[in-house]
């Protein structure tokens, strides 16, 4: 199921600089969440497994089943919305997993995704949004006037945006040392710009729902793309400094304005 992935010289340089102890593994099959049996297979390629768990009281009663499983003591790796490359510190050493769905993507873009994961491990940010919001996830659930699955999507997006505020400064410094990775970062951002600028109109017309719009806008933060209102308020030092508290206040104000 898992085997060591050969890394390009530029990605190996990032690994050595940011997370030299991390193993990068290819996965035999695609997944959103590894089932416990497959997750346990990681024990064959790592030194130890240390499942994370969080208080069930952090979750509202109608939280999605997968989220409830994630906070339990089960070894859960990967969640919906995590993308083609995921990482975890629930193993020793930490690992980055590359899913088969990356096949067909430009090599430079896949390299960027792996390098991004290595940078995130180095920053020691929370592994999942539930650790980021903790007990305040219930407050976010109250602020977001959407169903549980859409609330999950908004929470994941807000966490992704907060992480992006930190990683983009690292990416911006790659122009000299890792120009191919910097170019891939910029190219991915350029592909998002038009869609991001159109978000307010797309939401107003009903072409895009709010959860999808939040996901796209927050994904753009790591690319330093200018965001339209109301998402521009997330591209701030205040969000970086105050994290969950700021995100919840943003959600309250945003949904109050949408209801007016």
UniProtKB/TrEMBL annotation:
<protein>
    <submittedName>
        <fullName>Uncharacterized protein</fullName>
    </submittedName>
</protein>
<dbReference type="Pfam" id="PF23363">
    <property type="entry name" value="DUF7089"/>
</dbReference>
<dbReference type="InterPro" id="IPR055515">
    <property type="entry name" value="DUF7089"/>
</dbReference>
């Amino acid at each position: 199921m898992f085997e060591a992935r050969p890394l390009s010289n530029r990605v190996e340089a990032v690994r050595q600089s940011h997370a030299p102890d991390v193993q990068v593994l290819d996965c035999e099959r695609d997944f959103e969440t590894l089932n416990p049996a497959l997750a346990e297979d990681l024990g064959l390629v790592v030194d130890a497994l240390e499942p994370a768990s969080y208080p069930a009281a952090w979750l509202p009663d109608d939280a999605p089943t997968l989220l409830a499983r994630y906070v339990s003591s089960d070894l859960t790796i990967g969640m919906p919305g995590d993308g083609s490359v995921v990482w975890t510190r629930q193993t020793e050493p930490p690992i980055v997993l590359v899913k088969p769905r990356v096949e067909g993507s430009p090599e430079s873009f896949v390299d960027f995704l792996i390098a991004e994961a290595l940078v995130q491990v180095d920053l020691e940010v929370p592994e999942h949004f539930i650790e980021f919001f903790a007990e305040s996830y219930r407050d976010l659930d109250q602020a977001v006037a959407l169903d549980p699955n859409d609330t999950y999507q908004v929470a994941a997006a807000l966490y992704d945006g907060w992480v992006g505020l930190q990683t983009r400064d690292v990416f911006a410094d790659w122009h000299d040392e890792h120009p191919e990775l910097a170019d891939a970062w910029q190219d991915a951002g350029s592909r998002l710009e038009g869609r991001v600028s159109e978000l307010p109109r797309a939401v107003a017309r009903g072409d895009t729902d709010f959860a999808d719009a939040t996901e796209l806008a927050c994904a753009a933060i790591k690319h330093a793309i200018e965001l339209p209102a109301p998402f521009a308020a997330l591209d701030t030092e205040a969000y970086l400094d105050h994290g969950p508290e700021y995100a919840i206040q943003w959600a309250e104000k945003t949904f109050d304005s949408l209801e007016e």
